[in-house]
Amino acid sequence: MATLIVYDSAYGNTEKISKAIADGLAGQTTVLRVNEANSVDVKTFDLLIVGSPTYGGRATPAIKRFIDHLPANALNNINVSAFDTRISGKDKGFGIKIITNIFGYAAGRIAKELEGKGGKLAASPEGFIVEGKEGPLKQGELERAADWAKHIGQKDA
After folding, report:
1. N or C, fewer C-beta in 10 Å, the chain?
2. Is 145 a residue whose pLDDT tops 80?
3. Model-level pTM greater than 0.85?
């Protein structure tokens, strides 16, 4: 299976998760930062995974532009999935809990946008935890990302 992973990363955490996902996948995998992916023909891949840090419950503007510029139905017959990096409201203060409850996270929105372009969801959107705005990643998240990748397409999304 040929897979394309497109990501944006502000502090390197989402990039690390992207590479861990690639390590967990079988087959040929191409990992590209979003600014390198704009000219790639997504139709040449069987699976497209898009990842972004969460900013105000949304993906970065660069990821949003990438998806918006995909032609209508560009992802027909292509499996898709999405992930984000996020601060967990569960372990943080009351303010973070309120913000995350109001705005949510990026992965679900990315997945819906990919489906809107014709993609078939191959795995439920997933979030990977960073300890603070700049990181580091929570202990075990790289391993969890590789494990998540191994199960893409093996179960109902």
Report:
1. N
2. yes
3. yes
